[in-house]
Design a protein that fits this description.
This protein has helices at residues 3-32, 39-46, 50-55, 73-85, 99-106; strands spanning 36-37, 63-65, 68-72. It is mainly alpha-helical and 108 residues long.
Length: 108
């Protein structure tokens, strides 16, 4: 290995390290400015009734603090983006009901 090869390797390593540090700093800044919501606030944010939120809790990203459910806005946004691409959670045109809502109401 000559000097120019070593320099090229060092520059590539520097790029990788710089990108990793930038990513870590961005994640830390996002975590510090994250907005947390309780169940009522999350239901309003999603445009759902509170009971719908509880019925679908196994699909929604959340944490528990004792008996309280804690949601983050960023996780709920990602959930909504995923939800829009899934047919079982897509809202039918002309209604505010999803395929899941209709199936659930038929099984009652």
């Amino acid at each position: 290995m000559n000097r120019s090869d070593a320099r090229m390797i060092a520059e590539e390593l520097h790029k990788f390290i710089r990108n990793d540090v930038r990513k870590a700093v961005t994640e830390m800044a996002t975590a510090e400015t994250e907005e947390y919501l309780n169940a009522k606030q999350a239901a309003v944010f999603l445009g759902w009734k509170l009971q719908t939120l509880y019925n679908r809790i196994h699909d929604i990203p959340h944490t528990k603090n004792g008996k309280s459910l804690i949601f983050t806005k960023s996780a709920l946004r990602k959930f909504m983006e995923r939800k829009e691409s899934r047919t079982d959670l897509a809202v039918f045109p002309g209604t505010n009901k999803t395929f899941f809502d209709i199936l659930y109401s038929l099984n009652k």
